[in-house]
Amino acid sequence: MTETLTLRRPDDWHVHLRDGDMLAAVAGYTARQFARAIVMPNLSPPVTSVAAAESYRNRIRLAVPEGMDFTPLMTIYLTDDSDPDEMARGHEKGVFTAAKLYPANATTNSAAGVSDIANLGKVLERMERIGMVLCVHGEVTDPAVDIFDREAVFIDRILTPMVRDFPALRIVLEHITSEQAAQFVADAPPNIGATITPHHCIINRNAMFAGGMRPHAYCLPVAKRERHRIAVRAAATSGDSSFFLGTDSAPHARGAKESACGCAGIFNAPYAIETYARIFEEDGVLDRLEGFASEHGAHFYGLPLNEETITLRRSDAVVPDRLDGDLVPFMAGETPGWSLD
Ligand code: DOR
Ligand code: ZN
Fold first, then answer.
1. Are 319 and 271 spatial neighbours (Cβ–Cβ below 8 Å)?
2. Mind listing the domains of the chain with CATH numbers?
3. Any ligand 1 atom below 6 A from CB of 250
């Protein structure tokens, strides 16, 4: 049994770093593992301009502990009124790596998101032309659609027509949770990719109700039936370059999770790469971890591979119940089996 595992340094293609005190608390967890991360723009107010993204990027750089080499890759939050020129200017300037589509009211801080995809016509046309990546939160918000079906219905109602109308648009279906999403992306051309979180490889929807309500297992898109977990995990570990690492680490203060209306989000950044290593090892494909974690995403985004490496070592370390006073990490009380040197 291998005792150490050395990998090309990975990237996180989907993370919430937040702002202010929360940013200061969590930035180091991401920066110690990942060379780069696609940073979600769902702040309050959301990041909708080049100036706001530059200023947020500076705050992130300041929050990263001394000595850690980390590049935040910024995204613009799309709204019904997004200006294609502002978006393209930010992309040209190297500020925006991607644009993020939140259907209005789909999740945390998405009230200013897009209420009708028809409003994005000019934006998507421009993105397709300039080769800018669209990151998609793929859930419909129609209250008549069961919450466990919202991703599959999004694929039928929104994503399929979008791919037909903008065939060269580079789209990442974020944090996939269903067999329909895994199948859609596997069958799609190479300009369509997907990120996969550690938690959607490990928990199914029962985790939210194990002996009582478990707010720390609640995120959006919500975890689904076991057969969906198996399909998502199989996609992650398949070696298919359409699938890549995106933690969707989404910290909320404990009180905001353990509440009558708890926030969606799982805080998995502290042991993310260790948890992915466990998944790939359990499935007998540890040799495919590096592709998923460190290569497929960079290829998709057209960015160079990282040259540095990281080393994981076998370990009995237990994930703490609390971090930074008030945050409950994913896998609290469990042993990922690996530790980052
Ligand atoms: O669980 C989630 N938390 N899903 C999202 O889409 C947003 C995120 C957050 O920002 O808390
Ligand atoms: Zn997210």
1. yes
2. 4-340 (3.20.20.140)
3. yes
